[in-house]
Write a structure and sequence with these properties.
The protein is an alpha+beta fold. It has 5 helices and 12 strands. The model is unreliable at about 10-15 (pLDDT under 50).
């Protein structure tokens, strides 16, 4: 049915009184906020897990070490001879510190414990420093891939075929002993020790990554742009915790927080004890 002129006026007025679509909601749509992938070199992962790696080893050679835009760590282009057909396979690895062009890389269960080699976690002694760790056997490596990152092998359980590792965050994780990893730490460490010094440096850094800079605080915005905006002083003016089920434009701050504030009392001492244990 056609709307009457009065109903049309009502519908227009209701839409015109709505607030702005806040930035957090716009980012979820993608559009101009998508990653800048045009100049990136390709997917970075270990070799596809095959018979050669499961039972013995396969030799590759580092052809070049290249920069990948938007990534702090350098990449190594490694060439392998295919064990199944007459061709050369090119792989992109996250370069470990100390890798060089012309270096031979050995991947497999029986490879030696040398920086740059790829072995299953179950074959490594406790205390070994590794990077590019798989969290499921054969998925190509997902843990400790940022510049300067590494995991430490904590304990081995040969009966259960499990390996306990310490992650870059300090947390501990148990993975299958068949999960592969690269020996050594990711190259490009100490990147964040150098200060940005000027806004132009930050501009070029994030230009290569995606549209996410500069970041404005909610309290520094206008009320129409953010639930925490406005007021004569920069203050939130309402609880910063918010329910999981809130509408999209209101869901900012501490979403579905179980607790807030600093750890006090027994919980604080327990956290300190856990930190000391990790060291």
């Amino acid at each position: 049915h056609a709307l009457s002129s009065a109903e049309e006026l009502d519908s227009c007025s209701s839409t015109s009184t709505m607030g702005r679509c806040i930035l957090a909601v716009r980012k979820g749509k993608g559009s101009i906020f998508k990653s800048h992938t045009k100049h990136r070199k390709g997917a970075v992962s270990l070799r596809t897990l095959d018979f050669a790696e499961r039972t013995g080893y396969i030799k590759g050679v580092v052809k070049e070490i290249i920069h990948d835009p938007g990534r702090g760590a350098p990449l190594a282009v490694v060439q392998f001879r295919s064990p199944y057909s007459y061709k050369i396979e090119k792989e992109l690895f996250c370069a470990a510190e100390g890798m060089y062009t012309g270096q031979f890389i050995y991947c497999g269960k029986k490879a030696q414990l040398t920086v740059g080699n790829v072995l299953p976690a179950g074959e490594l002694p406790e205390g070994t420093v590794v990077c590019n760790l798989e969290h499921r056997p054969g998925n190509g490596g997902t843990i400790a891939r940022a510049s300067g990152d590494y995991c430490t092998i904590m304990t081995q359980d040969p009966d259960a075929k499990k390996t306990r590792v310490k992650l870059p965050s300090g947390a501990r994780k148990t993975v299958s002993s068949a999960c592969r990893c690269m020996v050594g730490i990711i190259a490009g460490g100490g990147r964040i020790d150098k200060p940005m010094l000027k806004a132009g440096t930050a501009f070029h850094k994030y230009k290569a990554k995606r549209n996410e800079w500069p970041k404005m605080r909610g309290v520094a915005l206008n009320p129409v742009e953010h639930p925490f905006g406005g007021g004569n002083h920069q203050h939130i003016g309402k609880p910063s915790t918010v329910a999981r089920t809130k509408a999209a434009g209101r869901k900012v701050g501490l979403i579905a927080a179980r607790r807030t504030g600093r750890l006090r009392g027994g919980k604080a001492t327990q956290a300190l004890a856990e930190k000391a244990k990790e060291k």
